[in-house]
Each structure stands twice: as C-alpha cells, then as structure tokens.
C-alpha cells in the first residue's frame, strides 16, 4: 500500500471532481489516502489579521497555509494535486518526493480566457516571466501530468515543453451508476436543460435569446444557475442545487437535451454528466468540451455566440425524437467508456502506483494504463 497525499482545490467543478475521486480512491486497498481540501478560506490564520491586504491576496496566503500544513501532516510516497496552483503554493515541500498534477487548464490558457473569466493576466515584464518560469519548472518536474482534455495536453507540450510520454489524458469522471438515462419524452414540449453557475459566461444569455426564437409551445427551458432570474413563461430557474443531488439528477433524467453555449470553458463537467444521463447535447467547440461531445454522434458542436446555429439545432432536436434518442444513447456509451468515475479513479491509482514503483526501482518505465 502506498501513502498518497491528495491536495484538492475546491473551486466550482473541482468540488464534484474531488467528491467523485475520493469516493472511489477511499475504496481502494492499494492506497492510504490523506486528503487536503484547499478552500482558500481557512479561518484562524495570521492572514485574518492583515485586513489591509486585498481579499484575493489573503485568500492566496490562506491557501498556501492549507497546502503546506497538509503536506507536512502526513508521511507520503507521492503527492497528487488536482491543479498546478496548490502545487505551486506548496513551495519546496512539493519537490521532496514525486508528485502528479491533474489539471483542467494551464496558466497560459487561463490568461487567454481572461476576459470571459474576469481574470486579469499579469502585464508583460519580470513578474510575468518569473511566474512562467516557476510553472515551467513545476510542470516539467512532475512525475506525471494528467490533463483533463487533449486541449490542455496540447498546451502542456507546446507552451511548457513537457515531454509527451509523461502526459496521460484522464478526464474527471461522473458516477455512471447514479447518473443514468431517464425515460425519453416523445410528446410534449422539448425539455432543454442548462447547468452553469455563471449564467452569462456559460452562455445562458444566448440560450435565453435562442429560446425566444422558438415557436411558442415548442420547448420549455430549465436553468440551473446561481444567477437570479425573473419569472418568465416557459422558463424555470433552479438555484443552490448541489452536485449529484437527487433534484439535479432528476432534472438530467427528465430532460430531452442539454445545452451549454458557453463563451469559455476549461472542461464542462456538466456536459459529461448529461452524457451519462443519456442526453443529446449542444455545446460550443471550446476547451475540453470538444472531448466530451462528438459532433453529429453524441450531439452538436457550435461556434461561440452563434445564435442562428443554436436555434437551428434546437428546432432539429425538437422535431426529431428518434435523432435525440440516437444521440443520447451514443452519449451514454461515451460516458461509460471515457467519463466513468470509478474507471478513471482506477487509472489515477495505477499511475500513482507506477510513479512510486519507478522511484523505488530507479527505472523510467511508463504506466501501461
């Protein structure tokens, strides 16, 4: 049994990833896991008394404390980080033993999506160059890198010079025993499901416009979001639904199509959940979404902001229940093979075991998984 410290950021979709991964890792007899959730809100630290510091700076310092305390509290053979950020915050404690990084996005990709994410990239200069050098060193020195998508894999190779043989794409899994297909509705309005905390960035505004373009009575729209919405005919909003909650699962199972016309997206785990529930999907061809939805096979890809294409695809799926069923069945099969939480957790465990064995044997053999 190997001892592994799992350092897990808790931002948004990473919470779902953390809970699904932990469920299956904790069942393994091959790993003794020590979990370190990184919330950036840890109370009772010295940083609470430095009110003059900007909130984001204090949050980073709290996260730094969480990571370093977590790495110091347990003996380990290997460390696993679900993004490169906590790995960077760990400082010299990270490099003392082998470590593996799984990530949905690289810093350069995040800067490229800065406008949509409300993020301000560093200006060109010494600070930007220093941060890039830190990230290059951190990523190149990782025993393995497990990006969530081929999109992120390409950036690791092109932007950071990581050797391709040390990279394995392992996307976050969904619980395919919990998220199963419901009964397809062959009559009545098309039930459209949208799941996105930030309505605007996730393309909810575009979807609302597209919905208004549809003939009256053709569809009904169900929006799972944190963004407040005024009551509107044919539209229902749901707030504060938790991942894997019975209410959210029921929405997946009673809908006909999943739509995520997002302006920017690192991965889009809700689209993988929709596939597990057997839903045809319409999503934008950005980030990791192009790994989840196969155009014309499990759903449709569309250019960002393309209202005309979105309306056309919605009309097509509203009029053709057989097409919806065919796409949905293919989406379920893809979820079972590519986005199964248990299978992907087993792949991560196999990778960690191989890293430790390689370290102990002084070899450079690669995992066969």
Shape: globular
Strand content: 15-25%
The side-by-side strand order for the widest beta sheet comes to: 8-7-6-9-10-11
Unreliable stretches covering 5 or more consecutive residues: 363-369
Distance between the termini: 19 Å
| Known CATH architecture of the largest domain | 3-Layer(aba) Sandwich
Q: How many domains comprise the coordinates?
A: 2
CATH fold-level name of the largest domain: Rossmann fold
Rounded average pLDDT? 92
Mind explaining what this structure looks like?
The protein has 369 residues and is of the alpha/beta class. The protein has 2 domains: 2-173 and 340-361, Glycogen Phosphorylase B (Rossmann fold), CATH 3.40.50; 190-338, Rossmann fold (3-Layer(aba) Sandwich), CATH 3.40.50. 44% of the residues lie in helices and 16% in strands. It has helices at residues 13-25, 55-73, 84-89, 92-95, 107-112, 114-117, 126-141, 150-160, 204-213, 246-254, 269-276, 289-292, 307-319, 321-338, 341-361, and strands at residues 2-9, 31-38, 78-81, 99-103, 144-147, 190-195, 219-224, 235-238, 257-260, 280-284, 299-302. A 6-stranded parallel β-sheet has the order 8-7-6-9-10-11, sandwiched between helices. A 5-stranded parallel β-sheet has the order 2-1-3-4-5. The longest helix is centred in the last third of the chain and has 21 residues, at 341-361. The chain is globular and about 60 Å long. It starts with a strand and ends in an 8-residue tail after the last helix. Mean pLDDT is 92; it is low at 363-369.
